[in-house]
Amino acid sequence: MAKKSKVIKELKRQALVAKYAERRKDLKANGDYLALQKLPRDSSATRQKNRCQVSGRPRGYLSKFMISRIVFRELAHKGQIPGITKSSW
């Protein structure tokens, strides 16, 4: 489980990106880079980090399922992910 502070910080960052998305788009289209620099640093979408929806883990993230590899394995073994079966040959 990730630290709660890191998960909350990432949620705040996502909110800032959503809040300033339209303004950033307009400023980029106009080429006003000085005004873009004055916006909050965390309002840039490239500063977002993908995190597991269940555990908050930042590494080993599977974007198709939006969970980490560890949680994916646990849920797959329990049969809670449709269409995923453990392979054996």
From TrEMBL:
Any GO BP annotation: translation
UniProt xrefs under InterPro entries: Ribosomal_uS14, Ribosomal_uS14_bac/plastid, Ribosomal_uS14_CS, Ribosomal_uS14_sf
PROSITE patterns: RIBOSOMAL_S14 (PS00527)
Keyword line: Ribonucleoprotein, Ribosomal protein, RNA-binding, rRNA-binding
A GO CC annotation given for this chain: small ribosomal subunit
Coiled coil: none
Entry GO MF terms: rRNA binding; structural constituent of ribosome
Similarity annotation: Belongs to the universal ribosomal protein uS14 family.
Subunit structure: Part of the 30S ribosomal subunit. Contacts proteins S3 and S10.
Function according to Swiss-Prot or TrEMBL: Binds 16S rRNA, required for the assembly of 30S particles and may also be responsible for determining the conformation of the 16S rRNA at the A site.
HAMAP family: Ribosomal_uS14_1 (MF_00537)
Name of the protein in its database record: Small ribosomal subunit protein uS14
Originating organism: Paenibacillus monticola
Gene name per UniProt: rpsN
